[in-house]
Each structure stands twice: as C-alpha cells, then as structure tokens.
Amino acid sequence: MCVLLVVGLSSLEKKIHNFNGRNGMADFFDKLADNLDKGIKTVSAKGKQLLETQRLNSDLSDVRNGIRVKYQRLGEKVFEMNNRGAAVDMEELRPEIDAISADYKRIVELEASIKETETKAVSEVEGQAMIKCSACNAFNPQEAKFCAKCGAPMAAPATTQEPVCGQCGQVVKEGAKFCPKCGKQLIV
Asked: Buried (b) or exposed (e) across 113-130, using 16+ Cβ within 10 A?
C-alpha cells in the first residue's frame, strides 16, 4: 500500500512538472476561460431562445383560439341563414372565411419564426450558420448537402407566399381544390 502511494505521488509529481514545464498553467487557464465563455454564450443564447419561443408559442395559442371562435361565429351565421330559410350566401360569409385563412397563414409564419429562433440560437452557440434537418431535426452547418446524423438531403428553406391549407397549413398550388397533404376541400 505504501509503495503504491509513493508511485502515485511520483507519477503526480511528473505530471505537475510536465504541466508546469510547458507553460501548462497558462494553457489550463486559457482553456478554462474559453470553456466558461462558451458556457455563458450557450446559456445566454438558450435563454433568449426560450423567452422568444415562449412569446411566439403564446401568440400561436392566441391565433388558434381565435380560429376556434371564428369557426363558431361562422357556424352560427350559417345556422341563422338556414333558420331564415335563406340559401347559404358565400359572399356574406367571405369576411369570416378570409379572416380564418389569414389566421392559418399567421400560424405558418409563427411556426417558421419559432424554427428560425431555435436555429439562430444554435448558430450563435456553434459560431456558424446552422439549418435543421427536416427528417430528424438535427442541426447541420448551412452549407451541408446531407444531414450528418441521418444522411437525408438538406432542403433549402421555403420562402414562398403561396396559399396554404386551412386545415394543416400545407402550401397548396394556386387554384387547387383539395389539399395534397390532408385532402381537405379548399375554399376558393
């Protein structure tokens, strides 16, 4: 037991000597400072991301609740028309329908903002522009052609202002009568 302790001390003394001999203490503190800087940067970026994401999610919840209220009002109007014996007048309903469609577009925008906020935080931490893989949600450098985690091709982000499905938010072609993703009949 005593021999092991002496050998252990001897080994430790060599490491300390080697550490000090290579300007090791300065290297140690430089690495420590770099790690602390990266940790602070990570916490700061994640904190900002969390606050912004919570705000966006709150807005998203408000818009979704607003859609429910608008659907209810729309249904009430249709019911009133029916009770009066009148045909359903789409032109009379158009403002409500347009408001609901605008809300669905707002949902798509908010979801894109949430994704962008998350990507921005990861990019800030990594020190380079990052994009999220649509297949596995892993982050990759912006120049990546394929995901480093799953190998899926990295798609360019969509920046189109095309019409979207009111049911699922899928971008649809102009003049389409049904959503290609969920099959919902589109209001034209």
From this structure: bbbebbbbbbbbbeeeeb
